[in-house]
Amino acid sequence: MEDIQRLGRKYTALSNNEIEYLINYANNLELGPEYQKHDVFIDVWNPIANEAIVVWHRKPFQSKSIYKEKIVGRIALRKDEPGPIRTLLTGQPSMNLFAVSQEGVSIKQTAYPIHYQDKVLGVIIFEEEYFDEMDSKHTEREQVDLTTLQRVTSHTIFDELDEIIMIFNPTGKLVYYNREAQKFYKEIGYLNPIHDLNYDNLALDFSRFNKIKQLEDGEVKQSEVVFWKFYLSKKIYKDGMGNFVQILNNKTKQKETEMIIEKELVTVQEIHHRVKNNLQTIVSLLRLQARRTDSQEAQKALDESINRVLSIATTHELLSTKKVDTINLKEVINSIVSNLLYSFASKKYVQIIKEIEATIDLDFDLAVPVGLIINEIVQNSLEHAFVGLDPSAKEFEVRIKIVEEDGLIRMNISDNGIGFDKKKVFKHNLGLQIVTSFVESKLNGLIVFEPNNPGTFVRINFKNTTSKVKRVI
Predict the structure, then answer these.
(1) Does the predicted model carry a pTM greater than 0.70?
(2) How far apart are the C-alpha atoms of 63 and 71, rounded to whole Å?
(3) What is the mean pLDDT of each run of 10 residues along the chain (473 residues)?
(4) Hey, what long-range contacts does 215-224 have (CB within 8 A, 24 or more apart)?
(5) Measured between alpha carbons, how far is 59 from 65 in angstroms, rounded to an integer?
(6) Contact 194, 188 (CB under 8 A)
(7) Closest residue by Cα to residue 203 from 239, 176, 234, 175
């Protein structure tokens, strides 16, 4: 009993109440005459080793134990003892399954779950020695039976399929399985042939045959099964002769690939989050510097730089919250415009109108330059377009319109301000130089400054390289 408490606290996630329940269970265990010659064990799950661990052992009353050494505290490997592990994971009894003891002896095991409330705390295992000679005869008989069944039913074509196919008769006994089923059950530790085993002795989930047999003829029951490291989709249906056909599709490799992608995306999210935080630190430093300078020109340059950094940080911030490798353009622009309205609070009389298709998504490589371009043009309008104009004379606006047609994104950005002469302003305006350079070099697009009479109109077209199918987990 001290072993249960010591090992339970050291190697398991069981609570004190659960450990106490196991101790009481072992203390009050009453064995029928059929188990007087068996070694009896209690195993519990060891999440550290991802295997079962032996916490209690009672030797036979009417015969010699098959164990020479102390077994309590040892790991029960799933490759040697599939029954107890299966029972721990599914809550299903495992009856008369072959196994190999920790001392290398061939044994036969029967395992029952130990339930506490709605949880399987552990398994009680009954073991007896099993002789290889009998095992050999049994295996030979099963192989003959299986070959005969295959010849009679013409099911040998199933051996060429990747699916795990098993047929159970009306009593739940396995009467046929294909090569993939034999291979799979051997991989999960079934050492003896599975032919003639009952459904409840082979189920990898919580289903029982007394529920399965309630299916109507032709009715299909589908479910997802997670067992150990395997992910399977399961279909079982009743044929017209009372048999039950179970098909397991092993999706483990697909799931592992998805988990790798998930891990990569989480890593990328974390990178975007850290980049955003670093950019926010740069913004704080620039703001601190702007407050300490007496030069209006220097302060203006620092404020413009702050908005540029914020436009980049916006993209990283949005990507840090999504498990996709694309970003919605409308979300980017909404965030950028909010930052600009905060920076140009004195221009609150200017209305920014956005007409942006909600379905436009961009790769990160496009989203950053597009965000900077929008930031520069709108910032330029807020800063210069309405200088000297009377806010009460008319409504002033900056309009952003973006549509996508056949993979071509067309952005029109305009204002109804005083306008400007590009030839005179361009060489002295860093923002316009950034816009032109990014459109041509980053977007491989075209940019045209057109008169708006009055005001400014900028037309930008570029090809969207983002796939319409987003990678989503």
Answers:
(1) no
(2) 18
(3) 91 93 92 86 91 93 90 89 90 90 90 93 93 47 43 62 93 93 91 89 93 92 92 93 94 88 79 87 90 89 89 86 82 92 88 93 89 92 90 89 93 91 76 89 91 86 70 39
(4) 215/244
(5) 6
(6) no
(7) 234
